[in-house]
Specification:
The chain is α/β, with parallel strands linked by helices and 482 residues long. The chain has 3 domains: 82 residues, Immunoglobulins (Immunoglobulin-like), CATH 2.60.40; 297 residues, TIM Barrel (Alpha-Beta Barrel), CATH 3.20.20; 79 residues, Immunoglobulin-like. The protein contains 9 helices and 30 strands. It has an 8-stranded parallel beta sheet. It is globular, with a radius of gyration of 24 Å.
Length: 482
């Protein structure tokens, strides 16, 4: 009888003792096959230092599981065991998957609407600031966080990290030997995000580097990817972002290398977590139609192109960097809170998703977008309010209205007889486009800045509805039963 147990979509870990001579990170191959009835899943293993090897597994079926290890080391080969997979705990809905082509949902069928923020280098700031970041995230309303594996060298990011991903070798690094303390720390923070119900959107590469991590040889890149995936894939809330601003690295990593990166991640992740890649130049979107890409990630201020991107790629679209609320010198980091809220609403109502970031100058260069800490801006509570509006709406997600008039200028969408129309900079006193042709419905006017909802009454047909006639309003239509 199995004495060990783990909940469905939880993390089960096999720990083995093996060789320490040579370079165990590259000299030893390790995996295990996990079986439940007719289901067999192969999970990769990894070296965890001091003669310890681990294989992590995320079971997706309740019941009895058995496993057997496979290795080119006799000490690690043929190790067997079993465990029981129990029902998932409350709040555990499994990994996020693509659903309804342009949207997302948890594996158990629960809706998931992405409301993400960015803290690129938050795990490289030391315990005090990192714990403050987690405390902020507890109540901020975000359910996804973009974060880098590697530390960052960029404006406002000149401090040295406490941990480095590779072992030192003279004045440089041994890119074939991973620093165990670094990865233990990273995993701790990833697990803490999961406990908060926040998806960890792991950025695997970025160009902002002074340590040489962005210019490793291709084989070193490939080995690094396999190692990171082996360590993190069994966490149900992990997403893979191949890069932040991949196009700024094309000199060292040409397009065929990025394509191969997708292949490596997909081949080594037995759970098929979500995969994306992020552009820098707005003209350099990756070819998101490629089969390894599960959803579209773009950086673009022109959020009214959301319908265009949905049509072009046929996948969920997240404009993760539609520019940040802040006051720094760079244009991408000095839009107003009202403007970020405005852009976020456009993305959502056009059937897509957006990302938050905050870049206010700080005397110690602690900017949320990279280092975390506390949120000082005004957009985040309004995005939390918007998340509530969306989650009260149709579980299937919003589909945008087609056509150029008025929907090329006014964002509108819906599902069935549900409608959400965002007027933004427009301020009509009456509006009738897109209303249901049949059936009774309740109309609400939403003030997206003041975070208020006013019910206008119950209506029928497409007669224009009287509105307050000021900017920043949205109209919500919900069918009335009976």
């Amino acid at each position: 009888m199995c004495t060990m147990s783990v909940e469905k979509w939880g993390l089960f870990e096999v720990e083995l003792t093996g060789p320490t001579e040579g370079n165990p990170f590259v000299d030893v191959q390790l995996s295990a096959e996990f079986k439940n009835g007719d289901t067999t899943i192969k999970a990769p293993g990894f070296y965890d230092g001091d003669g310890t090897y681990k294989i992590r597994f995320m079971p997706s079926v309740e019941g009895e599981w058995s496993y057997a290890s496979k290795s080119d080391s006799s000490a690690l080969d043929g190790q067997t065991g079993s465990f029981t997979c129990t029902a998932p705990a409350e709040g555990n809905h499994g990994p996020v998957r693509v659903r309804n082509q342009h949207h997302f949902g948890y594996e158990d069928g629960t809706s998931y609407f992405s409301f993400g923020t960015t803290c690129y280098a938050w795990v490289h700031q030391g315990d005090a600031l990192e714990e403050q970041t987690l405390k902020t995230l507890e109540t901020a309303g975000f359910n996804k966080l973009r974060m880098c594996v590697f530390p960052k060298d960029y404006i406002f990011n000149k401090n040295e990290p406490e941990y480095y991903p590779f072992e030192k070798q003279g004045d440089g690094w041994d890119f074939s030997r991973y620093d165990i303390a670094f990865f233990h720390h990273l995993e701790k923070r990833v697990a803490e995000l999961g406990a908060l119900g926040i998806e960890a959107d792991i950025i695997l590469f970025h160009p902002y580097d002074r340590w040489g991590y962005a210019k490793m040889a291709h084989e070193e890149d490939y080995a690094y990817l396999r190692y990171v995936v082996a360590r993190l894939a069994a966490y149900r809330h992990v997403w893979w972002s191949l890069a932040n601003e991949y196009d700024f690295m094309l000199k060292d990593k040409p397009m065929e290398v990025w394509d191969h990166f997708f292949e490596i991640v997909q081949e080594n992740d037995p759970y098929d977590h979500l995969r994306s890649i992020h552009n820098g130049n707005v003209t350099m979107n990756y070819d998101h139609t490629k089969p390894g890409v599960t959803h579209v990630c773009v950086q673009n201020w022109d959020v009214k192109r959301m319908r265009e991107w949905r049509d072009a790629y046929g996948k969920p679209v997240i404009d993760d960097e539609c520019e940040y609320e802040g006051n720094i010198l760079r244009n991408w980091g000095n839009i107003t809170a009202r403007e970020l809220v405005h852009r976020y609403w456009i993305c959502i109502v056009y059937g897509g998703y957006a990302g938050h970031g905050e870049t206010y100058e700080h005397p110690e260069d602690i900017l949320w977008w990279s280092k975390g800490g506390v949120l000082v801006g005004e957009s985040w509570p309004r995005l939390k309010f918007l998340r509530g509006i969306v989650e009260e709406g149709p579980a299937e997600g919003i589909e945008p209205f087609a056509g150029s008039f008025p929907w090329g200028r006014t964002a509108g969408g819906g599902c069935g007889n549900y409608r959400l129309i965002y007027f933004g900079e427009h301020q009509p006193k009456r509006f009738g486009n897109g209303l249901p042709e049949e059936g009774r419905y309740e109309a609400d006017v939403i003030d997206t800045w003041e975070m208020t909802v006013e019910t206008l009454g119950t209506f029928e047909g497409q007669e224009p509805i009287e509105l307050p006639g000021r900017p920043g309003l949205a109209l919500r239509i919900r069918p009335v039963e009976g």
